[in-house]
Specification:
The chain is globular and about 40 Å long. About 20% of the residues lie in helices and about 30% in strands. It has a five-stranded antiparallel β-sheet. It contains three helices and eight strands; from the N terminus they run αβββββββααβ. The protein has one domain: Peptide Deformylase. It has about 150 residues and is an alpha+beta fold. The chain binds nickel (II) ion. The site of nickel (II) ion (NI) has 6 residues, from helix 2.
Length: about 150
């Protein structure tokens, strides 16, 4: 595994449209491993492939609860309900935090690294992380959704 460079605000790759992963190759597996290592190194709870300069639909999430590390290929939100506003940040925007309204609960479908279709039902912080990371795959950044910027913790 290797730590990759995290692309920061202003890097055009963060706004690029990403591509579906058609085949889970060893390179895809390696990229997911590297993304996880990069996320842990930066003490983040999620990272999307565009944040390491790759326009593919891949995310890793770990909110440090019993869910553990999620490595998601071609994730898609298939249901959402409720709403909740909380403070978010992003590894691509160091030193910036703001309140963002998100769905409180989401259901997501994705492939896991073995190619198995998985369904994840999430609420609270995990639901928020899923929505934030999936936004990255569409070139949407949390600052686009901030209702009020706050001092970072
Ligand atoms: Ni982010």
């Amino acid at each position: 595994m290797a730590i990759r460079l995290i692309r920061k605000s202003g890097d055009p790759v963060l706004r690029e449209k990403t591509n579906q992963v058609k085949k889970i190759t060893p390179q895809v597996i390696k990229l997911l491993d590297d993304m996880a290592e990069t996320m842990y190194d930066a003490e983040g709870v999620g990272l999307a492939a565009p944040q390491v300069g790759i326009a593919k639909r891949l995310v890793v999430i770990d909110i440090r609860d019993e869910t553990g590390l999620l490595k998601l290929i071609n994730p898609k939100i298939i249901a959402r309900s409720g709403e909740e506003t909380a403070v978010e940040g992003c590894l691509s925007f160091p030193g910036i935090a703001g309140e963002v309204e998100r769905a409180e609960n989401v259901t997501m479908e994705a492939l896991d690294p073995s190619g198995k279709k998985i369904k994840i039902t999430a609420s609270g912080l995990l639901a928020r992380a899923c929505q934030h990371e999936l936004d990255h795959l569409d070139g949407v950044l949390f600052v686009d959704r901030v209702s009020r910027f706050v001092e970072p913790e």
